[in-house]
Amino acid sequence: MKDKVIIITGAAMGLGLATAEYLAAKGAKLSLVDYNGDALDDAVKKLKEINSEVELLTVKADVSSEEAVKNYVDKTVETFGRIDGFYNNAGIEGKQAPLTEYDQEIFKKVIDINLMGVYYGLRYVIPVMQKQKYGKIVNVASVGGIRGVANQTAYVASKHAVSGMTKNAALEYGRDGILTNAIAPGAILTPMVAEAFKQVNPDDPKAAETEYAQRNPTKRLGLPKEVATVVSFLLSEENGYVSGQTIAIDGGESNMY
Ligand code: NAD
Fold first, then answer.
1. Interface predicted TM-score (ipTM) of this complex, two decimals
2. Residues with CB under 6 A from ligand 1
């Protein structure tokens, strides 16, 4: 990954930050995108501690705004001259509620960020990669992009869409040297998942977490670094022929009947 130019959306926390840390240590040049400017500043400090020489660009952007997405792509090309890898990661969970009771404003927000945000990213990054005749893309789906997850209709709909778009991008741009995959993490301990356990059991989120982990074949939740290592492989030249796949990173749980 040395000197590879990688865009990471949702880079300030959770899975985005964990991958930024992993790639910074390997000497990649990182374009960090997030709508939380303060958290982005904190992320820069952490990354400089890992590698004081790391070349970073930060762009504050809401990925549900097409204009903001075009801007982060343009800024990355202005700064680094190319885009080798794109970790299309920013996303939200929305609120937990049964399908017929789901708040429609929140539903639309989840779709705007998780589906349209990923789509805009592909729309503006792919033409840059086409000119280079090279590029690696990792979209972030979820096990909710492979299976149903009760009380999360908007999230599940958006993540199935991400998995579908991934297949199409792989079909349409493989000829341009662009490999596109999605990852489908299970429950990985990030701020987003901590918030979900608070919704499940506001009095004792830790109990909800422990109970949830018991269903997993490994009897534990995943760690952000265990996602970062897979993303790093998919974004690297080591990946020469994997494309159009949605790869579960869930300790095997999604195979369970
Ligand atoms: P997180 O909430 O811990 O971090 C998400 C980051 O994205 C934050 O820094 C947030 O500010 C940023 N972000 C959110 N919406 C944004 C927007 N509209 N524009 C720009 N930045 C935005 O979440 P996470 O757990 O790291 O999740 C990252 C991705 O992984 C999401 O797409 C999520 O759906 C997916 N995912 C996570 C898990 C998990 O277990 N953590 C499982 C499956 C899928």
1. 0.99
2. 9-10, 12-16, 34-36, 39, 62-64, 89-92, 113, 117, 140, 142, 185, 187-188, 190-193
